[in-house]
Amino acid sequence: MEKVGHAVRMDNVRYAIRGPLLDAAQRLEKEGRKIYKLNIGNTGPFDFDIDPRIKQYIIDNFTMAGGYSDSKGLLKSRLAIKAYHEKNGIKNISEDDIYIGNGVSELIMVVMQALLNPGDEVLIPAPDYPLWTAAVNLCEGNAVHYMCDEESDWNPDLADMEKKITSRTKAIVMINPNNPTGSVYSKEMVQGIVDIARRHGLIIFSDEIYDRILYDGDTVYSPASMAEDILVFTFNGLSKVHRSCGLRAGWMVITGNKERYSGYLDGIKTLTSMRLCSNVPAQLAIIPALEYDDSINELLAENGRLRMQRDIIHQMLNDIPGVSCRKARGSLYVFPKFDIRKFNITDDNKFMLDFLNTKNVLMVSGTGFNWPAPDHCRIVLLPHVEDLREAMVRLKDFLKTYKQA
User: Fold this and answer.
1) Is the confidence at residue 13, as pLDDT, over 80?
2) Are residue 30 and residue 78 in the same domain, yes or no?
3) 395 within a domain of the structure (yes/no)
4) Over the stretch 285-309, which tens digit does the pLDDT of each residue have?
5) Which residue, of 251, 271, 291, is where some domain finishes?
6) Cα(73)–Cα(65) distance, integer angstroms
7) Which of the four, 177, 256, 350, 374, has the lowest number of CB atoms within 10 Å?
């Protein structure tokens, strides 16, 4: 019988974090090799445990999890989300405009499916978290990438953003703190994005999943706290700050002027109703997580594990000839730059594969984050210090002689 291929809409859908490089690493593991995995921001495998108060709350209230919840989520959980974002400066939130999902990923797909017609455009940063681009492409839209400037601590280039707006542009995606660069945007930068959205009548999708993973005293400014006249979707969840990736508890808060978008919002309601509801035990976890929201602080303190690992990897990368790296101010990643002339790099996926095959270290190529040049990669800060050090020693040794064929 004739082989069945994928649907045409899958042609431009990529997710490099769990793509061919991971497949290659898993094959090497089956051969008995130990692989140093610096590819994914998954807290559990690196011994970042869920706060015991969250686990106990789920256990104590598990009898509430036997049936479906409201398709938007448990009311008590939505009220906890409402209080959290009000505390962070967002006004006029209704619990009816809060949706809980099986992670933020599910909700990103929902908002794109309900919004986009074929050929519609969404402005997304380069580099980006690639799920945003993949979601737009899967919905047959066009992901248009505005550039972020490495020389300006990876801040968005607002002029580049605005010049890429067309009659088909529907929305701007903002990722702050940023994955993969670790940048944190100033109040003035966020206001600049808000002003562009206002001038052109665009929606803002604000991905704030790392909002409290901050190393140097920064503050995260949400566009929803600056604009009640434009539609803003604020995305957040438990995966990162609360080290609860496996619970898949994410949410979005819809604020601003909704009158123009009543049909769109009805579409979101329909799509979330079709999946019945998100995982109810995970919804329960939101309540204690946002009440006891202090457990991240010790990891970010001067001698905290995350901050120490951020500092170590920053120094070790910049000590390698031909490598430079901006210091991450937030999130769980760094995005180092490689001298492509020195190493003759024309294909960063091959570069990462050569490094994996030679030194058993898995990282993700920069083009996997929709960066246009083959000169970067993303490195996760989560592995234990000894493993991070060993991976960087191996990278330095590998680059001593590496020239891409």
Assistant:
1) no
2) no
3) yes
4) 999 999 987 889 999 999 999 999 9
5) 291
6) 12
7) 350
- Residue 70 belongs to domain spanning: 65-291
Q: Which tokens is 304 given?
A: 């905290």
Q: Which of 256, 291, 326 is the last residue of a domain?
A: 291
Specify the range with the lowest mean pLDDT, choosing from 170-174, 245-249, 327-331. 245-249
Residues recorded for the chain:
405
Work out the burial of residue 92: count CB atoms within 10 Å of its CB; fewer than 13 is exposed, 13-18 middle, 19 or more buried.
exposed
Task: Residue 326: give its domain's CATH number.
Answer: 3.90.1150.10
The whole-angstrom separation of Cα 195 and Cα 230 is: 10
Nearest to 100 by CA among 240, 284, 278: 278
Give the pLDDT confidence of 254-285 residue by residue, as tens digits: 999 998 999 999 999 999 999 999 999 999 99
CATH number of the CATH domain containing 242: 3.40.640.10
Query: Which CA distances in Å does 369 have to 278, 292, 364?
Result: 28, 33, 9
Q: How many CA atoms lie within 13 A of 83 on its CB side?
A: 13
